[in-house]
Structure formats: structure tokens, C-alpha cells
Design goal:
The structure holds two protein chains of two kinds. Chain A has ten helices and twelve strands. By secondary structure, chain A is α/β, with parallel strands linked by helices. Chain A has one domain: P-loop containing nucleotide triphosphate hydrolases (Rossmann fold). In chain A, the strands form three sheets. Chain A has a six-stranded mixed sheet, with helices on both faces. Chain B has 13 helices and no strands. The longest helix of chain B is centred in the N-terminal third of the chain and has 35 residues. The radius of gyration of chain B is 19 Å and the shape is globular. Classes of the chains: A alpha/beta, B mainly alpha. Chains A and B meet through helix 2 and strand 6 of A and helix 8 and helix 9 of B.
Chain lengths: 253, 316
């Protein structure tokens, strides 16, 4: 369980995240939604220690994240930020092997090799494991990074807009993979999403942010409601139910 | 590009290098320990070879580490002001401590090289527009500013002549007693190898490094210190060798990728090979005179550099 308590972050005098308290439940997909500049990514960065908070605290399984050693933290929480700009020429396998870095510092044991192998297989990358990352499509690269995170073997996986620059097919593929990580491997996935329909279809819980504050927090079916969404986005958003999916039809509203 | 072939080439070229020169020495002459030939061999030829190998490997590794840490394929000691900062350091040590020993000069040059490189990395952090070509241009400008400061004070103190000795890399002055400083780069290269995995991770960015539990700042600082130390020793003993740190890592990266633990040995070997070829050519083209190594590397290196730029693939 990740507990965020009265967390704030200021840039100069402007608050980006203000007094946020939210609990992320284990074994679920929690999506953060909200308009641009709501502070979602900043919050995720503070939870994963990429950014220092100005006040408040983050507890992971009851322990303060600031008190954990970086190595131990890296074995419990992983974060993927938008990484498609990366131009380091590594093969998929080399990248995935670095997921074992917190454990082995790059000198892989047999156990590490086995886990790397499994992660590649899980993401269907075994056949192309020797391709260089800069030769891959956006979707393949994103899968390689997720395979690395799987090899890192953390209970908590945080992703900052993983669907950016992906086409529809690959977006669906990535979301299905995240769902499997939760359902099959018991991971806890926290994800910042722009597309509320992906959030609606794939997440268990949704946290909605606006102007640095949490405005709504609850199970998906409670948040994907016209009344709640109009508060979050200042838009009238009708909802249609199809094949057990609640779809937000905001395109002509 | 197999390590084995690079190593065999290095052995062959080393052999050639040892027996090319103004005074002809044949392997048979070495059987007589007292002969003049053996003396020349030990005082001039062997030190020259060792200096070439260490400088070639060292500058290539320095370039590789800089490219990795700055995440830009066109950054190297030549294009980031490191060489210019080192020369400024040598000038300062000459002006402030008239009778500075080699080690004192070394310390000052190292401090300046480190400060210069660090400053460049700070500038890099503040640039929002991270274009592959724009960043080395900033580095070149930064280097030119340092260089003009050096020239100004060197002119005032009447040591221009003296300084130009460090501007032009030259192996012809290398002999016993004048190159031993370069041995410092051996343990430094070993340390670089131990840090190889950390450099690779750091090369994927600060957030990425933190995710894997790596203390990014410390790794970057170690890397910059290694670059500064290697550059300072090479400039002090041999002089400025341009382009080497730029092209060698790029060639290896194209064939072998950027996994430093795997590519460090290749980069060091290719760098030493390349410098040996340049040196041998420089010694035979206008025999019995010599073309300085920085001119040779400059001409061949800029040709290869242009080729890399025009390769079309937006790779860097």
C-alpha cells in the first residue's frame, strides 16, 4: 500500500501539488487523470523519489520512502517516464538486464539471467532480444521498457503516460499487459493517463486531479460519471455503456 | 569488429612502429645490449610506442565517457572545452609556479580540466534545446573563449611559443623521462572499466538511473574526474590530440552499441590502433622529417567525422 499524506510541491510561489492525501491500494491498477498541469506527473515523481516533496510524506508499506536506501527502494518501486527520446544504443536484452541492476550491479547471476529470460518471454520479445532499441517501433520499445521493469521485480510499478506516441493497437496492447501484471503477477500498477476511456476500461480505481489537488478518488465506476467528470474537466461528458465498458463520449460536447 | 583482430592489428602495428624511424634499427641489433641501436630503441622507440598506446586508448575512453554522460554523440574533450581548459591550466601553472615540477603542473592542469568539463556539463543542464549539433557548437564556443583567455595571458607573459608546444600534439619529443606521467592513465582506465555499467545506466538519464537505485550525481562526477585526469596527462606529455575522442567511440557505437562494459575494450584498442597508424604515416610521408600527430589525426579524423555526419541516418 502506498500512502501519500499532505504532500505539496511548489515551484517558486506557485503550488503544483497542494496538500494531496491519497491511498493507493495494492494489487490494483490505479489511474491518475485530470487536465494538463493538474500535477499528476509531479505527484508520481515525488512518490517514486525522482523529486523531493516540499512538505508531507509518502509511505510505502508503512515505511517512509525518504528513509529507504536507494538500492532497496529500487527493489520495491519502479518508475517509467516517457522514454522514447532515448538514443542509447542498447539491445533489448541489454536493457532488460539492467532491470537487475539494483540486485547485481551488472554482474548477472544465474538467477538474474533466468529472470531476464522470463521477462523477455512474458513480453514476447525473446525472438528480437538482440535488436537495438533505436531500430524498434514506439510500441516495441515501450514493451522493452516494461520487460525491464518486470525484471526489476518490484511490487509497485509506476508509469507516467506510457501510451504517449503509441498508436491505438499498441496502446491497447500495453494496457492489456498492465492488466495481466496485476491479475497474474499480483503487481500494483499506478499510471498517469490522458485518455479517460483507457482509464475507464482498464483501471480498478481512478484518482482525478485538478490544479494540484485531488478532486475525486474512488472505484472506476464511481468516477466515470457525467457529474464527476464535469467537475474534473469543466465539460459536459455523456457516458455510454457498451460491452460492459463505460465510454465517455466527449468528442462533440 | 572482433576484439581479437583489433588486438592482433595492434601487435603488428606496434612492431612496425618500433622499427620505423630516422636511424634504422633491426631486431638483430637488439641482441647487443650495449649497441647504440639498442640505446635508441630503449630511450626513444619504446617510450614513443607506450605513449601512443596509452594516449590513444585514454583519449578514446575519455570521449566515450563524455558522450555517454552528456548523452550526445558529438561531445568529446575537443568539443566540450576540456582540452582548452587543460591548456589554460598549464599556462596558469607556468605563470604562477615558475619551476613547477611535472606533478604540480599535472595537478593544476587536472583541476582546470575538471572545472572546465564540469562547467560545460552545468551549461548543458541549463540548455533546454538539446539538439545533437547545437550542444557541441556551444562546447566549441566555450572552448574558444577559454582558449582566447589563454592566448591573451600567454601573449602578455611572452610564453606563446612555449604554449604552442602543448597546442600541437607531437610524439617526436617523447623519450625516456618525459612520458612516464602517462602511466597514471592505466589505473584510471581500470577504474573506468569497473564503472562501465554505471556509466551506461547514467547515460540513460537521471530519472532512469534513480529508478535503478544509482546515485546519478556521484557517477557523473567520477566520470568527469576520469575524463579530466586522462586529458591532463595526455596534453601535458604529448599535447592536444583532436578528434580522437570524438570519432573512435562513434565508430564502435555503430557496430557494437553503447553497452560500455562490452565496448570499452574495443574503444581502447581501436583508439590505440588509429593513433598508431596516424603516427606511422606521419613518420614516413615526408621521411626523414615528421608530420605532427595532431595534424595527421586532424586531417584523417575530420574526414571520418564528416563521413559520420553525412551518413544520413539521424543517429546521433
Amino acid at each position: 500500500m502506498i500512502e501519500v499524506r499532505t504532500l505539496s510541491k511548489f515551484y517558486g510561489k506557485k503550488s503544483v501539488v497542494e496538500d494531496v492525501t491519497v491511498t493507493i491500494q495494492p494489487g490494483k491498477i490505479t489511474s491518475f487523470i485530470g487536465p494538463n498541469g493538474a500535477g499528476k506527473s509531479t505527484l508520481l515523481s515525488m512518490v517514486s523519489r525522482l523529486l523531493d516533496a516540499d512538505s508531507g510524506e509518502v509511505l510505502i508499506d508503512k515505511s517512509d520512502v525518504r528513509k529507504l536506501k536507494s538500492q532497496d527502494f529500487a527493489k520495491r518501486v519502479s518508475i517509467l517516464k516517457q522514454s522514447n527520446y532515448m538514443n542509447v544504443r542498447l539491445t533489448i536484452r541489454e536493457l532488460v538486464s539492467f532491470g537487475r541492476f539494483p540486485y547485481s550491479k551488472g554482474h548477472l547471476t544465474e538467477e538474474d539471467e533466468r529472470i531476464v529470460e522470463q521477462s523477455l518471454e512474458y513480453m514476447h520479445l525473446t525472438e528480437m532480444q538482440d535488436s537495438f532499441l533505436d531500430e524498434l517501433s514506439g510500441g516495441q520499445r515501450q514493451r522493452a521498457f516494461i520487460a525491464m521493469v518486470i525484471a526489476q521485480d518490484t511490487d509497485y510499478i509506476l508509469l507516467d503516460e506510457p501510451l504517449n506516441n503509441l498508436d491505438m493497437k499498441h496502446s491497447v496492447q500495453i494496457m492489456k499487459i498492465l492488466r495481466r501484471l496485476v491479475d497474474e503477477l499480483g503487481k500494483t500498477v499506478v499510471i498517469v493517463l490522458h485518455d479517460i476511456n483507457f482509464a475507464s476500461v482498464y483501471s480498478d480505481r481512478i484518482v482525478a486531479m485538478k490544479d494540484g489537488r485531488v478532486v475525486r478518488d474512488g472505484p472506476t465506476e464511481e468516477i466515470i460519471q457525467s457529474e464527476a467528470l464535469s467537475e474534473i474537466y469543466d465539460m459536459d461528458i455523456p457516458i455510454r455503456e457498451m460491452d460492459n465498458c463505460r465510454i465517455c463520449v466527449y468528442f462533440n460536447s | 569488429m572482433k576484439k581479437r583482430y583489433l588486438f592482433l592489428a595492434l601487435l603488428a602495428l606496434s612492431g612496425v612502429s618500433l622499427f620505423v624511424g630516422v636511424s634504422s634499427i633491426s631486431p638483430m641489433d637488439l641482441l647487443d645490449v650495449q649497441s647504440e641501436e639498442t640505446q635508441i630503441f630503449l630511450i626513444s622507440r619504446v617510450p614513443r610506442l607506450v605513449a601512443i598506446l596509452l594516449a590513444g586508448a585514454g583519449m578514446s575512453i575519455a570521449g566515450l565517457i563524455m558522450q555517454q554522460l552528456s548523452r550526445n554523440k558529438f561531445v568529446s574533450p575537443t568539443t566540450a572545452g576540456t582540452l582548452d581548459a587543460t591548456r589554460l591550466g598549464i599556462l596558469v601553472s607556468m605563470l604562477l609556479f615558475a619551476n613547477a615540477s611535472m606533478l604540480e603542473k599535472m595537478a593544476v592542469a587536472f583541476a582546470f580540466a575538471l572545472a572546465g568539463t564540469f562547467l560545460f556539463m552545468q551549461i548543458l543542464d541549463r540548455i533546454k534545446f538539446k539538439d545533437a549539433i547545437f550542444i557541441p557548437l556551444v562546447g566549441l564556443m566555450f572552448g574558444n573563449i577559454l582558449s582566447s583567455v589563454t592566448t591573451f595571458f600567454a601573449y602578455r607573459a611572452d610564453v606563446i611559443q612555449n604554449m604552442s608546444a602543448w597546442l600541437q600534439g607531437d610524439f617526436s619529443m617523447i623519450m625516456k623521462g618525459r612520458y612516464e606521467l602517462l602511466y597514471i592513465s592505466i589505473p584510471i582506465l581500470v577504474i573506468a572499466y569497473f564503472y562501465a555499467n554505471r556509466f551506461t545506466v547514467a547515460g540513460m538519464g537521471e530519472d532512469f538511473s534513480k529508478n535503478l537505485g544509482l546515485s546519478y550525481r556521484r557517477v557523473v562526477n567520477v566520470g568527469l574526474a576520469i575524463v579530466a585526469l586522462i586529458t591532463a596527462t595526455v596534453v601535458l606529455t604529448v599535447g592536444v590530440i583532436p578528434f580522437l575522442g570524438l570519432i573512435i567511440p562513434n565508430i564502435i557505437s555503430i557496430f557494437k552499441g553503447d553497452h560500455l562494459q562490452k565496448t570499452l575494450p574495443h574503444t581502447a584498442l581501436l583508439g590505440a590502433n588509429f593513433l598508431l597508424v596516424c603516427d606511422i604515416l606521419g613518420r614516413v610521408i615526408i621521411y626523414p622529417y615528421e608530420i605532427s600527430i595532431s595534424l595527421m589525426v586532424g586531417v584523417i579524423g575530420s574526414g571520418i567525422f564528416l563521413f559520420l555526419l553525412f551518413r544520413g541516418k539521424a543517429y546521433a
